[in-house]
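Ubiquinol oxidase, Acacia crassicarpa. Tokens?
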Amino acid sequence: MATSFSSSVFVPSISSSSAAKARNLKNLTPRYSPTNFLHYNPLSTRPSVPRVKATLLQDNEDKVIIEESVPSKISSSDTNRGSSEESSSSSSSNTLEKWVIKLEQSTNIFLTDSVIKILDAFYHDRHYARFFVLETIARVPYFAFISVLHLYESFGWWRRADYLKVHFAESWNEMHHLLIMEELGGNSWWFDRFLAQHIAIAYYFMTVLMYAISPRMAYHFSECVESHAFETYDKFIKFQGEELKKMPAPKVAVDYYTGGDLYLFDEFQTSRVPNSRRPKIENLYDVFVNIRDDEAEHCKTMKACQTHGNLRSPHSLVEDDAFEDDSVCSIEMADCEGIVDCIKKSITSEPSKLK
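Tokens:
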């Protein structure tokens, strides 16, 4: 990879001592290794961005334990008796979760490879047309996520305001990528428009169903798509870089990346502090470099979303930290995020005791 990116993942703390832990993490510097950017374990997370109230999770941790926020009601006399039962239950839960994740990721890789083969067959040397199709497809998952989240909110299950903000910002970013490709002539042939639009329609309904069943699987699938987009633009820049530097930047790209209001531009980059990235646009080369970097940021955000919990928008985290409110980490979390999650909880959790 030609360019390295600093990355961190926001994993909001929900433990009972979250406020105390959060204050100790403000001076941490985010780290990102380019060697494992495109290949990762969705159950591992990264250190948080400075001045963000979050729990630090090491890369070698097997899973994120979210049940720690529940106060223990076991007396001291029951501790020894319950420890062996908890160990057995935890081992069974970990085994089941690993098999589910393996199945989800294998399916996603198969689907992604299938789409890539279609694009390779039709767009071997037609770069701008390929980018047009790719960007038409890449923006679909984000408003599919928003559709399902709005449905959940209508049912009264839970509200995910930050999820809606971040996913809309991601869709807004991908839409501008699409506008840039249209201005470059990527949609000039009717067949390219026909293929892209029909793939997008099928992709939308598939993503809605996948997100309802398992959000983790849907986010991983989107992360696979974003990873492919990153690799595609990175290769294009390496082979066409000198030629691109001689060509002017499209107006829509200049307006988007250098405009006055960049709130939504900062919003989708959940691993960065707002205002920390301000692109320069001097030629077409800079445009594609920034599009490639955008795909990397989408990839990191999709990683963060695969961790069970609540995604926080960059602006919300900065505002919460500015107020120094200890209650900001106490976020109500839904018991189940998807059908697979609910089934797993019903199998592995102990039956509740009536009092």
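Residues 1-79, 323-335 have pLDDT under 50 and may be disordered.
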